[in-house]
Structures are given as C-alpha cells and as structure tokens.
Specification:
With 190 residues, the protein is mostly helical. The chain has one domain: Lysozyme (Orthogonal Bundle), CATH 1.10.530. The chain has helices at residues 2-22, 24-29, 32-41, 46-57, 77-87, 90-98, 100-105, 107-125, 131-141, 143-150, 160-166, 170-185.
C-alpha cells in the first residue's frame, strides 16, 4: 500500500512539474479566478495579488516557508488566527486553533486571508507616494520595519525609489523591487 501511495505521489509530482515546464501559461494562471474574486472583495488590484503569489511561491499551493508560512501567499499561522478571529465565525476560529496548517492550505482560503492581510497593511500607507512599495515591504518584513525605514523622513511624501533604497534587508528590497517590476510590466493575467 505504501509503495502504491509513493508511486501515485511521484506520478502526480511528475505531471505537475511537466505542466509547469511545458504549459507555463496554465501553471501561472490556474488560480486567476480565485485571485480575481478575492482581490475584488478586498479592493485590491488582481495583478498585484498575482505578482505577489508569483514571487512568494510561483503558484505552488503546497509550499511551506522557513517561518511556517503556508500556501500560495505564504500566510503565517498568526495572521490566519487573526483573520479567523476577525471574521467572527466560531467555526473558523476552531479550525484555525486545531490545525492552522490545514486551515490555510486550501488555495481559496489562503488567497482570501492573504488579500485581507494585504488590504489591512495597505490601509496604513494609503495615499502615500510609496504606498504599494510600503505595503509590500510590510507584507514581507512587517509593518514595524517599514516604520524603521521611514523614521526621520516625511513618510507620506517619500518617493517609492527613496523608500526602496532605505529598505535595510537586502532580500526584502529585492522582493519589493521584483514584485513592482512584474506588477507594472507583465500583461494582465487572463
């Protein structure tokens, strides 16, 4: 039985890898409907959400990060529990408390929570010249880091390029720059 399960798993992985290599448009656009639906709910540009997922996991829903982030948008257990609490649905709170990894591994729920969190972060930077860059930096490194990188400046007026140059973590600077480039140059997902 175990050999059978291992064989099936290997076949599934081979098919998924082949799809990514031979059908990249399918691979990178297979969640477009979910992204579009959740982005509309949270008043986000679906192209931005798509660009974040591209950077975070290249559309691999099973991906787990080094800090226990899960799924397409690399949601942390703490963010998932906060979202569940804020929904007011006791069932979500219970599920998040019992097995948060399973709770956020579903692609639709993962994108939903990711969009909720992204909008929550964006509210803090709305109207600023570097709004999108600040939101992405907060998504990657946390809002306290954005405060640190804007200390001593007029945070509302700092330009995007100036903000990016002030990002003190090279991987976060690369993350923000990569997403912004993709977001602004890629054709809209179909």
């Amino acid at each position: 039985m175990i050999r059978y399960l291992i064989s099936i798993s290997l076949i599934a992985l081979t098919v998924a890898a082949s799809a990514a290599i031979f059908f990249p448009d399918h691979w990178i656009h297979r969640y477009d409907d979910l992204i579009s639906r959740q982005a509309r709910i949270y008043r986000l540009d679906e192209k931005l959400v798509w660009s974040i997922i591209y950077e975070e996991t290249y559309f691999r829903a099973w991906k787990t990060g080094a800090a226990d982030e899960v799924g397409l948008m690399q949601i942390t257990p703490a963010v998932a529990r906060e979202w569940a609490r804020e929904t007011g649905f006791k069932e979500f709170e219970r599920e998040a408390a019992e097995n948060v990894g399973t709770f956020i591994s579903d692609p639709e729920r993962n994108i939903q929570i990711g969009c909720w969190y992204l909008e929550k972060l964006r509210e803090q930077y709305r109207g600023r010249s570097a709004e999108t860059a600040m939101t992405l930096a907060a998504y990657n490194a946390g809002p306290s880091r954005v405060e640190e990188w804007t200390r001593g400046t007029d945070a509302a007026a700092i330009s995007e390029s100036d903000f990016i140059s002030r990002i003190g973590i090279p991987s976060t600077r690369a993350y923000v720059s990569s997403i912004l480039t993709r977001y602004r140059t890629e054709k809209k997902p179909s």
